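User: I'm new to structure prediction. If I give you an amino acid sequence, what do you actually give back? Let's try with this one:
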Amino acid sequence: MEQIPEDVIDWLLEENNPSIRYRTMLELQDLPNTRNQVKEAKEAVIEYLIVQNILKKMQPEGYWEVKKRDDRIIGAGVEYADWSTTHFILSYLVELGLTKDNPLVNKAANRYLSLPQPDGDFWNHYSCLYGINIRTFVKLGFQEDPRLLKTIDLLKTMIREDQGYLCDPHEGKRKTRLVKSCYRGSAKNLFALSELPQLWAESYAKRLINYFLDRNVLYKTKKPTEFVTKETGKTIFPFSYRAGLLETLYALAKMGYGEDPRVQNAWTILKNHRTSTGRYILDWTPGRTTNRYFYPGKRQTENKCVTFYAYLCLNYKKESGKSYGSKLRK
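Assistant: Good question. You get back a string of structure tokens that encode the predicted 3D arrangement of the chain. For your 330 residues, that looks like this:
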């Protein structure tokens, strides 16, 4: 396991952020969830002001509303064009350390899981949307739910010739050449697959992994020194439709490819985000008016959420993914 400086651990364990404190105990220190201090940390999460504000603003039916600039109210359905619609908020609750064990989270999650189309899709086969949702609901504890299993099947059926994913509005819009897969949507599906180890040996999982390895994770295939999108080399939190550095490194390292030479440039970029204190910098987060529910801190400053994920990525690089990686390379 990556050696984390003791003062960094102490910083992550501060009581002013119960969620990072709780997750640090479980995921970085590997403490059993039966230990009293872990139980106390978990209990503190539900009292965390950020969590309380989110849950208090949930509609009685189990969703969150957002007023758009054109005065439309969305949130009850699957539409999304905001960092504060229901599926994003459920993903934030995951990051804050909650699961379906919480009755309000369970209510909202079950309601949302009633919305997909018969094939498990949520909206126009937006790969970023069903990728985000798969990870969210697995982390919430719905991995065996038949409704989610239909959506997980899309990972197999929707992968494209170029080994990535796209969405219906962009599919076939060019008559003379294939539309390239969407890097962001593909990254969300890679992130989702990283929570489903039973699928890592499947052919479509290997193809998706190669989609990223063949471009050295972050770069255009025909311009190997140019980022696919401007955010791919940035630390972004909370995770949304953008595809930042942490998500791809987390997924590839967890799935056993952290030591692959093609990932090394990405690790170097992550290292460049580390300060002399051993903490990591947050490059970008939505502003408070855009994401009214989960503001993790100022941009270009040391950030607990980014630091937590950076060390989690580094731990996966050395530890838990290697056995799966060796199998996938055979």
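You can read the tokens as a compact description of the fold. Here is one thing that stands out. The two ends are 25 Å apart (CA to CA).
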